[in-house]
Specification:
By secondary structure, this protein is α/β, with parallel strands linked by helices. The chain has nine helices and 13 strands. It comes from Streptococcus mitis.
Amino acid sequence: MKKIVKYSSLAALGLVAAGVLAACSGGAKKEGEAVSKKEIIVATNASPKPFNYEENGELTGYEIEVVRAIFKDSDKYDVKFEKTEWSGVFAGLDADRYQMAVNNISYTKERAEKYLYAAPTAKNPNVLVVKKDDSSIKSLDDIGGKSTEVVQGTTSAKQLEDYNKQHSDNPTVLNYTRADFQQIMGRLSDGQFDYKIFDKIGVETVIKNQGLDNLKVIELPSDQQPYVYPLLAKGQDELKTFVDKRIQELYKDGTLEKLSKQFFGDTYLPAEADIK
């Protein structure tokens, strides 16, 4: 009986020792074993072309391909795109559902207080678009009493809302819509409203692709750099450092210029000093 007890005790000790060894060996990474990467979800409205759009069911466009280049061969991050409505881009960043967003996003003080701006990736000033046969609108001084279509929450909508506060005696007429920019430009061409303020690249692309030859573009003065930025959720400081560094590298190695010519037909890049 004593022999049996002694044997059982030794066996138990052996099992415990084996378990400890197994636990220790199981917790260690083997050489060459893949380390799990952090998934970065990037939100986009997939509009306007050529910044973000779908082609044959796949997302592409200047900003989409810039993001792919940023995360290419990263040993720390995996990138995934998610399409959502314009308002959903910001709601998702607020809820930490998205870590990053690209959607032809310009700078505003209000956004800078809520989100992190990465280095700019494109230069894209706003322009005023009217019908060629309309001689009544030559600048922003002439939009009082005239009508336009805007998407709520966009920079141009905010600009015109501020305009109306300052010109309450003769405001411009704002028709809010959820239509995409291509549809809005088509309605402008058809005479359903009087003018549209939007970015130069997007305007020129739609006029060319949709054959809207009855529209003309008027340059607008700007008191700030008309740049396009990736936007990151608050708290993503480490990701911002990575993204900024990669944008600088892509600028220097010519990748940004190559993509700009591919999607815009010309070089629309920020000044090098502004991406540092």
